[in-house]
Amino acid sequence: MAGASEGSVWLMGYCYQCQSQVPPRSGHCSACRVCILRRDHHCRLLGRCVGFHNYRPFLCLLLHTSGVLFHVSVLLGPALAALLRAHSALHTAALLLLPWLMLLTGRVSLAQFALAFVMDTCVAGALLCGAGLLFHGMLLLRGQTTWEWARGQHSYDLGLCHNLQAALGPRWVLVWLWPFLASPLPGDGITFQTKAGMLPDSRRSQN
Ligand SMILES: [Zn+2]
Ligand SMILES: [Zn+2]
């Protein structure tokens, strides 16, 4: 089944699990047991799929979480420097890499263990969220989902500005500060404008 309206093109797919026709860019999630509109991936940390309706809050979550964790890591820097001055670099490295072992063997105090544990958690979390933010930032600018990126599909790359508006709405600059700001998405999650649909008729006929 196919249709078109004002440059939008959609080709309905079929989901054998749901036993129904589904819109393009949607995907079935075996964990959620349902087809998700413009499915990106199933986030195991959040326990739900990231798709058309929650991609913007997901991006903001990555940005704010990585920012907060990085900030806390920097704030803990002076305490770590004091630890380095009081002990050898090897002792501090062992504390940061194996805090539980150092605590259980009685080589560090509970306060030093707590500092190392919080520092490790913040640095690891900041790196994880920062890497996720970089990856999804790249997808955002390209107008791709993770599934499309893995298969090298660029059908929905409408250009930088259009891609940002398609995922974040018209107030795409401000939603980074507050993800629940009124910035309605231009599409309905069922039909999507394609790159081919944006080409002038003369160029489209050549392709
Ligand atoms: Zn399905
Ligand atoms: Zn899911």
UniProtKB/TrEMBL annotation:
Entry EC no(s): 2.3.1.225
Keyword Signal: no
A molecular-function term among this protein's GO annotations: protein-cysteine S-palmitoyltransferase activity
Bilayer topology term: Multi-pass membrane protein
GO terms classed as biological process: protein targeting to membrane
Enzyme class: transferase
Any Pfam family the entry gives: DHHC
GO cellular component entries: endoplasmic reticulum; Golgi apparatus; membrane
InterPro entries: Palmitoyltrfase_DHHC, PFA4/ZDH16/20/ERF2-like
Key words, A-Z: Acyltransferase, Membrane, Transferase, Transmembrane, Transmembrane helix
Membrane-crossing segments per the record: 61-84, 96-117, 123-141
Subcellular location(s) per record: Membrane
Domain Palmitoyltransferase DHHC, first and last residues per copy: 14-151
Catalytic activity as recorded in UniProt: L-cysteinyl-[protein] + hexadecanoyl-CoA = S-hexadecanoyl-L-cysteinyl-[protein] + CoA
Keyword Transmembrane: yes
Free-text domain note: The DHHC domain is required for palmitoyltransferase activity.
Family: Belongs to the DHHC palmitoyltransferase family.
Protein name: Palmitoyltransferase
Organism: Castor canadensis (American beaver)
